[in-house]
Design goal:
The protein is mostly beta strands. Helices cover 12% and strands 35% of the residues.
Length: 104
C-alpha cells in the first residue's frame, strides 16, 4: 500500500529560512525528513515504536512556497520520497526503531 500525504508549502517567513540561507532561502533537509517520518508513522499499526532513518538522499532544492507531497511504502523497511510536483527532492528508507535497551 503506497501512501501520499500533501505537505506545505513552507511560508517565506518560516523561522528555518533565516539560516538556510539568507538571500537564497531553501527548506532544510531536517524539515523534509520530519515530514516523511510523521506521514509514515500515521500508517504504522497501533503499538509500533517508531522509525529510524536507515538512509536518505537529497536530490533537489525546495524553496519557500513550493508545495510538496510525501510518498511512502509502509512496512518493516519503509521506502519514502518527498516530491515537489513530479520532481523527487529527497528519498530514502526508514527502519523500525529498536526497542528500549536494544542496540541501534
Amino acid at each position: 500500500m503506497t501512501t501520499e500525504t500533501p505537505l506545505g508549502p513552507y511560508a517565506p517567513d518560516h523561522p528555518a529560512f533565516a539560516g538556510h540561507f539568507p538571500g537564497n532561502p531553501m527548506v532544510p533537509g531536517v524539515l523534509l525528513l520530519d515530514a516523511a517520518v510523521h506521514a509514515l508513522c500515521e500508517t504504522m499499526p497501533a503499538g509500533a515504536i517508531g522509525l529510524r532513518i536507515d538512509r536518505v538522499k537529497f536530490t533537489g532544492t525546495v524553496r519557500p512556497g513550493e508545495a510538496l507531497s510525501v510518498h511512502g511504502e509502509p512496512g518493516a523497511h519503509a521506502a519514502f520520497d518527498v516530491r515537489q510536483d513530479t520532481r523527487v527532492v529527497a528519498s530514502g528508507w526508514f527502519a523500525p526503531a529498536p526497542a528500549s535497551g536494544e542496540p541501534p
